[in-house]
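Deliverable D5.2: sample structural annotation.
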Amino acid sequence: MHEYTSTLRIWELTCPGYLEEVGRARRWTRDVLSDSDRADDAALIVTELGTNALLHSASGNQGEAFNLTITRTPETVLVSVTDAGGTRTTPHVEHPDENDTHGRGLALVSTLAQRLHINGDDKHGHTVTAELSADPKTPNVPLTHGYWCECLVNGGKLGSFDATSPEQAVRWVRISLMTIAMALDEEPYRRAQHWKNQEQPQALEALRKGEPQNLTLKHRTTQITWTARPVTFLPLAHRQCRTLPACTQMHSTAQLTSLSGE
């Protein structure tokens, strides 16, 4: 650590070009910012920027590295990652199609940060700096509190839903549960009916208190689990778009049968 003044503090870390180093950088960031409410945000930013440096620049080559710098003032936390160059394009914020699984790194960082600065060139490397407000009372983005619901078949996701209230979450679970239960044997169907008639009010009250809920049905060799838990959503995609991400789409009973191998 290099401490220049009583109000400006700077920490630096060099990470060799291995993906495991991203985890070390994340833990180091949390340690450095252990007394800051922005520690988790900064750790997430380090994860995204470090991964991008390894995957999209020479930092991921043998013998290369990326450099991480954290700068703190009373007002801000600056997180900077410098890659080793060798990229064909300057790092930039992409706006991928909502079904894409890649390209969201800088989009996520720009959502968390108040400002995003990109400097450097292909020869000497690019530095991406995310500026966070040190005051947790001044959020960088309008976070939305909600409830994340999933239906899992033998551990694999069958469907999911982002609810805005406990009532909406329980309703999604109930509809999904009863739709699937009608295609199952008598015993799991009876279990689903019991949850609907007897346990549903308790599940709703528990979600209101912030307690995650889950329900499991067993059908021969297949285990089907519904979960609902409180989460905080980042505004990464427009909720009014015509096509929802694939993870929000429910599947039919026929697809459930095919997943169970019957």
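Annotation notes: Confidence is low (pLDDT under 50) at residues 1-5, 95-104, 237-262. The CA atoms of residues 120 and 126 lie 4 Å apart.
The annotation will be released with the project's public dataset once the embargo ends.
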